[in-house]
């Protein structure tokens, strides 16, 4: 199809304008602010709500609704008492590559803050995913994910103590868990099953990640196995919907 006004492929058709031509006032403001965002560039300071309302001759509530959507989309971010243009989203591959590798490929500095590292008796819900028998000890490690010191996610990892008996003393929680398993324990990942869904963070999760509870999150459930096909770990990871996108390569369909 033709893209009017040099509109890029992949953008909303006709910039989201309905066929009847009537669009909400806030959406018109949003479109104009989006142009301003391109002009300012990453880190640029957006004018205040009051200034934008005067510039576009609308109410501050209309401006606020437009900015709210741009914040949720990750095009803007709060900085102190102001609003600045956000950088591009982090692209995380849907593969067995670690979070560390994915962030480094984009020139960002990965990091993690340890929230807790506990061991408890394996419940029925984790037995198959971790390969632990009921009642055998498993580790639960919870970490906040960082990119250039910005909090971008929350990760919970469950692994059998038998697989990593000295995790609490040998492992640096700011480093890659996959790297630890591979380099220190000689365990290689074979394959994994993943499921992705959109959710809202709980109040506790939002506090740890530093986001408002209404911000959409991308939730990934992963169950991994080693090269012999044995269960290895179960991971539950929340990613900020305004800071992440996911990529994968699809091969040809064969009958």
Note the topology.
Elements: H1 25-40, H2 49-56, H3 60-72, E1 76-79, E2 82-85, E3 90-93, H4 99-104, E4 110-121, H5 124-130, E5 137-147, E6 150-160, H6 167-170, H7 177-183, E7 189-200, H8 203-209, E8 216-226, E9 231-240, E10 244-247
Parallel strand pairs: 3-10
Antiparallel strand pairs: 1-2, 4-5, 5-6, 6-9, 7-8, 8-9
Helix pairs in contact: 1-3, 2-3
Structural account:
This protein has 255 residues and is an alpha+beta fold. It contains eight helices and ten strands. The strands form three sheets. The protein has a six-stranded antiparallel beta sheet. Strand 8 (216-226) and strand 9 form a beta hairpin. The protein is elongated.
């Amino acid at each position: 199809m033709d893209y009017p006004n040099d509109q890029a492929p992949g953008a909303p058709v006709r910039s989201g304008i309905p066929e009847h031509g009537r669009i909400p006032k806030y959406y018109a403001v949003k479109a104009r602010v989006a142009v301003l965002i391109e002009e300012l560039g990453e880190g640029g300071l957006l004018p205040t709500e009051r200034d934008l309302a005067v510039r576009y001759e609308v109410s501050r509530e209309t401006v606020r609704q437009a900015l709210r959507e741009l914040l949720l989309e990750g095009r803007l971010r709060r900085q102190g008492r102001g609003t600045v243009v956000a950088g591009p989203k982090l692209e995380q591959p849907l593969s067995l590559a670690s979070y560390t590798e994915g962030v480094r490929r984009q020139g960002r500095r990965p990091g993690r803050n340890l929230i807790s590292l506990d061991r408890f008796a394996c419940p029925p819900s984790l037995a198959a995913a971790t390969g632990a028998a009921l009642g055998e000890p498993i580790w639960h490690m919870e970490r906040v994910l960082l990119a250039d010191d910005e909090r971008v996610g929350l990760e919970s990892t469950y692994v059998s103590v038998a697989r990593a008996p000295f995790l609490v003393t040998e492992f640096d929680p700011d480093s890659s868990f996959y790297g630890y398993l591979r380099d220190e324990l000689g365990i290689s990942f074979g394959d994994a099953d993943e499921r992705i869904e959109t959710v809202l963070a709980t109040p506790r999760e939002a506090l740890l990640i530093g986001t408002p509870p209404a911000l959409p999150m991308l939730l990934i459930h992963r169950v991994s196995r080693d090269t012999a096909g044995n269960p290895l770990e179960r991971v539950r990871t929340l990613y900020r919907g305004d800071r992440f996108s996911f990529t994968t390569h699809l091969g040809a369909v064969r009958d």
